[in-house]
Amino acid sequence: MFFLEDLPDFRTMKGFAKRFPEMEIDTTAACLRLLRVASHLIRNLENHFTGHGLSQARFLVLVVLERTSEKQLMPVEIARQLGISKKNTARVLSFMEEDKLVRRTCHETDGRASVVTITSKGADLLTAALPGYYRVLNRAMKPLDAKAKKLLIGLLDRVDPDDAERRMKTSRSAFS
Known about the structure:
The chain has eight helices and three strands; from the N terminus they run αααβααββααα. It is elongated, with a radius of gyration of 20 Å. It has a three-stranded antiparallel sheet. It has helices spanning 10-19, 25-51, 56-66, 75-82, 86-98, 120-141, 146-159, 161-174; strands at 72-73, 102-106, 114-118. The chain is mainly alpha-helical. The chain has two domains: 1-51, no CATH class; 54-141, Orthogonal Bundle (Arc Repressor Mutant, subunit A), CATH 1.10.10.
């Protein structure tokens, strides 16, 4: 999270730029604003999740399970989709299993592996949390019209190197 509420003004940034030639004032200003906006959005989402007894990680585990046709995934796939370590995924899944939000069973063909399935309690909790989740997102984007949102998405796509790499792989596979 990014906790700097009072962003530096132009004069302050200009002083830093003199001391640190790597600093580009416009780049730094844009990144600081992006970090602050993202942090506010994450804080609002975390407040919402807390009201449902969830964390961001638990919520996202439920989302990735719910959006699969079988409502189940291997832990390694959950870790990959969330971009977190296998160790952290295992910890989150253990707590979720204790709370009966997910169930782990042995993989049907690989006895060393397990499969995680969303339970009805987990699905119900996700169903209860999603409307408020969407309200938080809608409130964050309310100042923008559809054209501005499309522009924002395009700009963010251009500065997200991981997303650009994923898009390249997707477009390459579409032509294969």
